[in-house]
């Protein structure tokens, strides 16, 4: 039969794919950028970036030195792009700000009850949390991470850190010797078709002696830095999960402040890593934070993490808590699961990687904030003496600070991650979840990670998907509108929005690959793994064939698509600053 | 005409955020919620800055009434090109009850204090949709008003204005001093870029209290209850 002539409608218009120096529409447009100098520039206003900023200023004040620290953050306000469970281990916070309680840090809910279950479709098998197992939460606090991050921002501002929310770091700048010179923020006023609007303005350059990159899990600038400086040549690829979360105002009678619930098992099969969390906050109202995590090494392209989350809520152990309640927030974010096997080289001339970007999450504890903060603090402590030394001790124009990586290796961060390094990979066995739990129960509980071997991961998450024809579609139940919901009403609750008239920031290296490969071989898994409905395959106007429609405005900046695209064709870049979700205490 | 322009800017909940009613039905949840400058106020600021760039006016003064955070909104106006800011400090219960009548009294007092030739406001705020402040301010000052402006041009000491009205477009000519309220099509506001935000930190914002201006912000209105709109019922054909 004759194949119809397929012409791919143009999807990608972003200048990172279609350079402007060759684009006639940009001829004569002033591209000069205003530049300013700081001592340190920090990309990302999350726990790691803010901890680094605070520590730098504490050191500067202690030693009576002047230090200009500038922090750029793409969210419209500090905390608006923060999403986490979360059960916080306060160790790093106490090291950073010992009097955090007197200063009003929002750690209001000590954990009082800790429950772990294996769920089956109808039942629940309780699993005792023996002391010494990583998932034990004694001494920890349930927090609304966005509020903690906002508080950290206030502490940073008080110390004189210059915070610039609403401005995204879009480009890394380099000295002639190849070392990092700083960053440039995003341009504004580019139309959806990639042409300049009347209000076009270039971003600004922030130059620094050293730049800290704390973009969170799977940062887009970090991706470039890995390539430029070969930072991943001696480590395993990073592996990830997607975490989806909701906040619910529940019936007061069901409220048990301080209660922490985790589960594994249903609705996931034993070979798909993931589980749930449900935390009862204690901040004066019956609020619970709940959510679902799915390892992105799943193999079935028909799997939808969002719909697994929605159907989990109907389990007889979970639904009663939510009945009569009201959902008030929704969001999603990728998280890293690779542990110490996947940590890249952390320093390069002119820059350092901190926080979830290189990835310090303790997977069985499901905690990464304490290690992220500590990494930021260690970075600050390593940089400070070099910045303020009498003579600038550096071969390159941008400061190289390898001491940071050495200090991190000697700190409790590395010790902790090393001890749990085999738990997540132990999941890759015939018995899947049960094998992993047995490994944890035996080897971790007895040997605490001292076993002399280090298990490997399976390769990149993107390579794990099997072709659609080898897999069975999953029958998901329809949302009932009371406990479970449809995708679009969920996305509305994230408060996400972007200036509509700008090039889609979900860029494709090749516009023809989605239909040819992703749809052709994998039945368009991006329609299912995106928690915000960005990707849709819709029929062509001509009627023969499909095209990919990218609803960029819905994006919640979770980074899952960049991670899980089996063709690795999607490159997430930063949209105009100030866009994205408007999370409030998530 | 050269002189001073007062631009009112209001800090409102961002238009993309899903509003939630407080459990006690006294209002909506604002704590921690993303706020931004009212879109029509952005248009008013842009128009004022354009007039200054054309050298038709000398100084743009941004004014906002509200709590401490209103200073962020003034800072954005300064980054767009306003010269200095006045923060009228109203917080707590007074802020919850602050409405067009009190704000227009404040603006009228400031207009006299600052010897303003022009007051530029957004036509309405997207939180209360009142569409009253501009009109009330003009009445209190006994100044002409050009509301729903989609085109503004200065001609000597008069203003030519095109207004968007139900029937189409109305062309009027008004004397100065005057109050103008901006409609959607008046202009496309520029971005507040980072270098301008940094420069704006050096521009002055003065804080005053309503009492300093001789204004009593006690509300004549009492909000009895705030509730969600009723659930939409399915249609029947």
From TrEMBL, chain A:
Compartment(s) where it occurs, according to its Swiss-Prot or TrEMBL record: Mitochondrion inner membrane
* Coiled coil start-end: none
Q: Sorted alphabetically, which SUPFAM superfamilies does this protein's record hold?
A: 4Fe-4S ferredoxins, FAD-linked reductases, C-terminal domain, FAD/NAD(P)-binding domain
Q: Which GO terms describe its molecular function?
A: 4 iron, 4 sulfur cluster binding; electron-transferring-flavoprotein dehydrogenase activity; metal ion binding
Q: The 4Fe-4S ferredoxin-type domain covers which part of the protein?
A: 546-575
Q: Which reaction does it catalyse?
A: a ubiquinone + reduced [electron-transfer flavoprotein] = a ubiquinol + oxidized [electron-transfer flavoprotein] + H(+)
List the keywords (alphabetical).
Acetylation, Electron transport, FAD, Flavoprotein, Iron, Iron-sulfur, Membrane, Metal-binding, Mitochondrion, Mitochondrion inner membrane, Oxidoreductase, Phosphoprotein, Transit peptide, Transmembrane, Transmembrane helix, Transport, Ubiquinone
Needed cofactors, names only, are: FAD; [4Fe-4S] cluster
Q: What is this protein called?
A: Electron transfer flavoprotein-ubiquinone oxidoreductase
UniProtKB/TrEMBL annotation, chain B:
Coiled coil regions in record:
none
The record's section on InterPro entries has: ETF_a/b_N (IPR014730), ETF_b (IPR012255), ETF_beta_N (IPR033948), Rossmann-like_a/b/a_fold (IPR014729)
Principal cellular location given in the protein's record: mitochondrion
Q: Kindly list the GO molecular function terms attached to this UniProt entry.
A: electron transfer activity
Q: Where is the Electron transfer flavoprotein alpha/beta-subunit N-terminal domain?
A: 25-217
**Database matches in PANTHER family:** ELECTRON TRANSFER FLAVOPROTEIN BETA-SUBUNIT, ELECTRON TRANSFER FLAVOPROTEIN SUBUNIT BETA
Q: State the function annotated in the UniProt record.
A: The electron transfer flavoprotein serves as a specific electron acceptor for several dehydrogenases, including five acyl-CoA dehydrogenases, glutaryl-CoA and sarcosine dehydrogenase. It transfers the electrons to the main mitochondrial respiratory chain via ETF-ubiquinone oxidoreductase (ETF dehydrogenase). Heterodimeric electron transfer flavoprotein that accepts electrons from several mitochondrial dehydrogenases, including acyl-CoA dehydrogenases, glutaryl-CoA and sarcosine dehydrogenase. It transfers the electrons to the main mitochondrial respiratory chain via ETF-ubiquinone oxidoreductase. Required for normal mitochondrial fatty acid oxidation and normal amino acid metabolism. ETFB binds an AMP molecule that probably has a purely structural role.
Protein name per the record: Electron transfer flavoprotein subunit beta
| Species this chain originates from | Astatotilapia calliptera (Eastern happy)
């Amino acid at each position: 039969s004759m194949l119809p002539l397929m012409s791919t409608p143009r999807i990608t218009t972003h200048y990172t794919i279609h350079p402007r120096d060759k684009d006639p529409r940009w001829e004569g447009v002033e591209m000069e950028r205003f530049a300013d100098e700081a001592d340190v520039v920090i990309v990302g206003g999350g726990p790691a970036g803010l901890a680094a900023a605070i520590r730098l200023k504490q050191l500067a004040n202690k030693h009576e030195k002047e230090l200009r620290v500038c922090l750029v953050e793409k969210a419209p306000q500090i905390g608006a792009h923060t999403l986490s469970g979360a059960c916080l281990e306060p160790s790093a916070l106490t090291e950073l700000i010992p009097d955090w309680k007197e200063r009003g840090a929002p750690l209001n809910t000590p954990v009082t009850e800790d429950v772990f279950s294996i769920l089956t479709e109808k039942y629940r098998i309780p699993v005792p949390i023996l002391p010494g197992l990583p998932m034990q939460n004694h001494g920890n606090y349930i927090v609304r991470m966005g509020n903690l991050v906002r508080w950290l921002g206030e502490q940073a501002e008080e110390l004189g850190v210059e915070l610039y929310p609403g401005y995204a770091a879009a480009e890394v700048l380099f000295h002639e010797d190849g070392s990092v010179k700083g960053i440039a923020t995003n341009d504004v006023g580019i139309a959806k078709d990639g042409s300049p609007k009347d209000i076009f303005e270039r971003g600004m350059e922030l130059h620094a002696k050293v730049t800290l990159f704390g973009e969170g899990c799977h940062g887009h600038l970090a991706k470039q830095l890995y390539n430029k400086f070969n930072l991943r040549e001696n480590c395993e690829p990073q592996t990830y999960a997607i975490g989806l979360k909701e906040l619910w105002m529940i019936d007061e009678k069901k409220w048990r402040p301080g209660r922490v619930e985790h589960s594994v098992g249903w609705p996931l099969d034993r070979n798909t890593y993931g589980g749930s969390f449900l935390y009862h906050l204690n901040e004066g109202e019956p609020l619970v934070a709940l959510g679902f995590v799915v390892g992105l090494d799943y193999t079935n392209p028909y799997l939808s993490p969002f719909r697994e989350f929605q159907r989990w809520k109907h389990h007889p152990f979970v639904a009663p808590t939510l009945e009569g309640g009201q959902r008030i927030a929704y969001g999603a974010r990728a998280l890293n699961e690779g542990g110490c096997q996947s940590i890249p080289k952390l320093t390069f001339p002119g820059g350092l990687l901190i926080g979830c970007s290189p990835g310090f999450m303790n997977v069985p504890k499901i905690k990464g904030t304490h290690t992220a903060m500590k990494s930021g603090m260690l970075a600050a402590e390593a940089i400070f003496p070099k910045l303020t030394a009498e003579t600038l001790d550096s071969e390159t124009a941008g400061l190289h600070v390898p001491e940071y990586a050495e200090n991190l290796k000697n700190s409790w961060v590395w010790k902790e991650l090393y001890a749990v390094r085999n738990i997540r990979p132990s999941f890759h066995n015939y018995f899947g979840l049960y094998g992993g739990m047995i490994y944890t129960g035996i080897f971790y509980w007895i040997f605490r990670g001292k076993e002399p071997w280090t298990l490997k991961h399976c390769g990149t998450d993107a390579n794990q998907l099997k072709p659609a024809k080898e897999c069975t579609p999953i029958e998901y139940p329809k949302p009932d509108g009371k406990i479970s919901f449809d995708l679009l009403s969920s996305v509305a609750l994230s408060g996400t929005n972007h200036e509509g008239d700008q090039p889609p920031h979900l860029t494709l290296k090749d516009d023809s690959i989605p239909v040819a490969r992703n749809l052709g071989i994998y039945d368009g898994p991006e329609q299912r793994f995106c928690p915000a409905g960005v990707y849709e395959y819709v029929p062509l106007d001509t009627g023969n064939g499909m095209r990919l429609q990218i609803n960029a405005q819905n994006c919640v900046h979770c980074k899952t698509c960049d991670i899980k695209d089996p063709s690795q064709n999607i490159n997430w870049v930063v949209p105009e600053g100030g866009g994205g979700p408007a999370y409030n205490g998530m | 005409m050269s002189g001073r322009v007062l631009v009112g800017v209001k800090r409102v909940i961002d238009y993309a955020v899903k509003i939630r009613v407080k459990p006690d039905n006294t209002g909506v949840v604002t704590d921690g919620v993303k706020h931004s400058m009212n879109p029509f106020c952005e248009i008013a600021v842009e128009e004022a800055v354009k007039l200054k760039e054309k050298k038709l006016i000398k100084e743009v003064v941004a004014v906002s009434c509200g709590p401490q955070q209103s200073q962020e909104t003034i800072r954005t106006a300064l980054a767009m090109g306003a010269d200095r800011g006045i923060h009228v400090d109203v917080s707590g219960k007074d802020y919850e009850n602050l409405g067009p009548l009190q704000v227009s009294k404040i603006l009228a007092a400031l207009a006299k204090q600052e010897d303003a030739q022009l007051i530029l406001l957004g036509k309405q705020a997207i939180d209360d949709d009142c569409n009253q402040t501009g009109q009330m301010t003009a009445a209190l000052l006994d100044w002409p008003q050009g509301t729903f402006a989609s085109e503004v041009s200065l001609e000597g000491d008069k203003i030519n204005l095109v207004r968007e009205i139900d029937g189409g477009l109305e062309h009027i000519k008004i004397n100065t001093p005057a109050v103008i309220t901006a409609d959607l099509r008046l202009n496309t506001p520029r971005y507040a870029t980072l270098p301008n935000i940094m420069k704006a930190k050096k521009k002055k914002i003065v804080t005053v209290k309503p009492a300093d201006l001789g204004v009593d912000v006690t509300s004549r209105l009492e909000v009895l209850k705030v509730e969600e709109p009723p659930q939409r019922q399915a249609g029947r054909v």
